[in-house]
Amino acid sequence: MLEEKKVSEAIISRYFKDLQNSLELDVAIVGAGPSGMTAGYYLAREGFKVALFERKLSIGGGMWGGGMTFNYIVVQDAGKEVLDEIGIPTQKYIDGYYTADAVMATTTLASKACLAGLKVFNCMSVEDVMIREEQGKKKVCGLVVNYSPVEMAGLHVDPLVFETKFVIEATGHDTEVLKTMVRKNDLKLFTPSGEIEGEKSMWAEVAEENTLKNTQEAFPGIYVCGMAANACFGSYRMGPIFGGMLLSGVKVAKEIAERLKSE
Ligand code: 48H
């Protein structure tokens, strides 16, 4: 016997348990591109309570499509090491250049991250953050989240809030979370101008290096990684070479893990 009501009951009870369980997090990640998912994988693997909010129904951000929808990605030696560790097959193209099937890379990364304990909430849009002042210092301490179809339909429906010790802004080129923070609040980011510096045109070699340097705390409680790091601290784009994105996810996870352990 198959009861439709039981199917609905199963989904609702499981989903809302996860949602309730995520109201207080160690780390909340915004964006399921390669950098956000890599960060989620490493943090979940260490046992931290970490959830990822993705606006789209599909995860993977810009990695699915390789370059111009030709679905291969390219990495250099350091990026290959991350793919090896996650268990994503690569093929050597020439010395220092490796390819990976973009669909296999995206699905394997997503699968490993979820199996490690990362909770992914897809179809959820982060529309704001929560900021609190403690001893005269402001700190990001939560995410303000709405259901993506509410956003898409332009409905006037209020969001829900998830408390977290750290936020990772991994929204890619648009740096949506930081843009909202800067627009709404009188605050200065840890960038040279105190504002979002902005992304520059293509220069892959410098961009790959800078992605790692720029992966850091942008304001107390919120870190940037991936393309958002380059947009925030001002560096170049690099096209469909993804090593910097993966290494950025590894770096942000490591830095936050160290802080969570010491705090
Ligand atoms: C929830 C949101 C919100 C929001 C956005 O763009 P991504 O793939 O991000 P990265 O930085 O991990 O990877 C960048 C890479 O894909 C890329 O574009 C490269 C290497 N470009 C180089 C070049 O030269 O062009 O993923 C970001 C994700 C997406 O899935 C968005 O839907 C999601 O973030 N997102 N999710 N709430 N407010 N804003």
Summarize this structure as a short list of keywords or feature phrases.
alpha/beta, FAD/NAD(P)-binding domain, eight-stranded mixed beta sheet, 9 helices
Question: β content, as a range?
Answer: 25-35%
Number of strands: 13
What structural class results from the helix and strand content?
A: alpha/beta
Helix content: 40-55%
Overall mean pLDDT stands at 97
Number of helices, counting only DSSP H or I runs of 4 residues or more: 9
CATH topology: FAD/NAD(P)-binding domain
Major beta sheet summary: 8 strands, mixed
In CATH, what is the homologous superfamily? Answer: FAD/NAD(P)-binding domain
User: From N to C, what is the helix and strand string?
Assistant: HEHEEHEEHEEEHEHEHEEHEH
Heteromolecules bound: ligand 48H
Shape: globular
CATH architecture name: 3-Layer(bba) Sandwich
The figure for the number of domains is 1
Give the CATH level 1 class: Alpha Beta
Poorly predicted segments: none
Round the Cα radius of gyration to an integer and report it.
18 Å
What does it look like?
This protein has 9 helices and 13 strands. With 263 residues, it is of the alpha/beta class. A hairpin with a 2-residue loop joins β4 and β5. The longest helix is centred in the C-terminal third of the chain and has 20 residues. The protein is globular and about 55 Å long. It binds ligand 48H. Ligand 48H binds next to α2, β2, β7 and α8.
